[in-house]
Specification:
10 helices, 73% helix, Tetracycline Repressor, domain 2, mainly alpha
Length: 204
C-alpha cells in the first residue's frame, strides 16, 4: 500500500482493504494481522490509525452502505415509470455472481453480523434500513399517485414487506442454494401481488 500524505487517506485505504478481505474471506480472514498484511503494514501501524478494530469495521460498514444507497438511488433516479423504477430497484438488490451487487451484499452481510455487539454498526444499520424504506416508499407513493399501483396495505408496510423479502432471499442466493434469477422472479412476484402492478412484465 502506498503511503498517503494524511491520516484520512490512510484510513480510506484501510477501509478498502478491509472491504476486500471481508468479501473474499469473511470475518475470519479480516483480522488485524490479515488487514496489516494485505495493506503492507505492521499490525502496530494499523492500530495507530485504528486503536480499536471495531472502529475500522464500523467505518467500513458506513462506507459500504453509503456506496450501496448512492448507487441504487442514482441508477433508478431517471426512470420515469414508477413500475419500471421499482422493478429496477428490486433487481439491483439481488446479488448476481461476479457483479458489484454480490460483493456489496456479501460485505453488508458480513458486517451486519457484528451489529449485535457494536453500537456504531447498530446505528448505521438502522439508518441504512430507513433509507431503503424511504426509497421504496417514494416509488410506491409515486405509483399510487399515477394510478399505476394499487396497494393492499399502507405504503410503509408494503415497503417493509418488499425489503424483508429482498433481505431474506439474499442469504440463500449468496450461499449458492438459490439462483439469482429465481430469487429475482420470487421477489418481483411478491412485490407485484403487494402493489397490483405486473413487475414481471416490466422486467421482460
Amino acid at each position: 500500500m502506498a503511503r498517503p500524505r494524511n491520516q484520512e487517506a490512510r484510513k480510506r485505504e484501510l477501509v478498502s482493504v478491509t472491504s476486500q478481505l471481508l468479501v473474499e474471506r469473511g470475518q475470519g480472514g479480516a483480522r488485524l494481522v490479515d488487514i496489516a498484511e494485505a495493506a503492507s503494514l505492521t499490525p502496530a501501524a494499523v492500530s495507530y490509525y485504528y486503536p480499536d478494530l471495531a472502529d475500522l469495521y464500523a467505518d467500513t460498514y458506513e462506507t459500504a452502505i453509503e456506496e450501496y444507497l448512492t448507487r441504487r438511488r442514482e441508477h433508478v433516479a431517471h426512470i420515469e415509470s414508477p413500475v419500471d423504477r421499482l422493478t429496477e430497484c428490486i433487481a439491483l438488490g439481488v446479488p448476481h455472481a461476479g457483479t458489484s451487487s454480490r460483493s456489496a451484499t456479501v460485505l453488508l452481510m458480513e458486517l451486519s453480523a457484528l451489529a449485535i455487539r457494536q453500537e456504531r454498526i447498530v446505528a448505521s444499520g438502522m439508518e441504512f434500513e430507513a433509507e431503503q424504506l424511504r426509497l421504496f416508499s417514494e416509488i410506491l407513493e409515486s405509483g399510487v399517485a399515477q394510478g399505476a399501483m394499487r396497494l393492499q396495505y399502507g405504503v410503509l408496510e408494503t415497503a417493509r414487506a418488499i425489503l424483508a423479502v429482498e433481505d431474506g432471499i439474499a442469504i440463500p442466493v449468496v450461499a449458492g442454494r438459490l439462483p439469482s434469477e429465481e430469487a429475482l422472479h420470487v421477489t418481483l412476484s411478491v412485490a407485484s401481488s403487494l402493489t397490483g402492478a405486473d413487475l414481471l412484465a416490466a422486467r421482460r
